[in-house]
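Handout, section B. The chain below has 69 residues.
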Amino acid sequence: MRIRMLVAMPEGAARNGEPWPAEGEEVDLPTAEAAHLVASGVAEEVAADAEPPAAPRRRRAAHPEGEAT
């Protein structure tokens, strides 16, 4: 099962000797393990045909006089 991490694991945390993926990264795990992480709110399931998440949109800073640039 493919999941996307919603939180950062504590520094030094490892799974089978490998560091956990960072927050926002995706990983394939056995279904039972992945389902446990999803149920715990630590990760979310990624659909097999899903596109990578879009970069978050940021607001532009307002012009010093209050007008948008």
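Note. The first helix runs from residue 31 to 39. Compare this with the example in section A.
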